[in-house]
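ENCODED BACKBONE
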Amino acid sequence: MQRIHVEITAGIFLIICILCLAVLSIKMGQDYVMGSNVYSVTATFGNVGGLNKGAPVKIAGVPIGQVQSVKLNNYQAEVTLDIANEVSLREDAIATVKTQGLIGEKFIAISPGGSPDKLKPGENIRDTQSAVNIRDLISRFIFKSDEL
């Protein structure tokens, strides 16, 4: 009888451990199974220069979301951003593709605007700045040319 009690206790403990690991892995991956605490907006860029799904979205260097998807739409890169609900973007916000360091990973930097109107879920960020191509900049500097 005591052996069955020990086995049941060990089984319950194992189930609790597995559930804790599942919750931890979901939270670490920033995937939310129950309820969503983000809203999505889109931005269109001429060039995203290697921006990938899952890249951070930041305001003033503080992460506020992540890139949900990057896809081609009318020969432009359409980027869907998941933004935390507690952050409300203004209608005249500017989204810029930036690089951490000289050749680091890409991320989206948002410059907040001054408009009193706020972006609603599913709307577009109208003002965007594409990624800077380092190779083009070096080429312009070396050859002192304005055209490529």
The mean pLDDT is 84. Residues 8 and 14 are 10 Å apart (CA to CA).
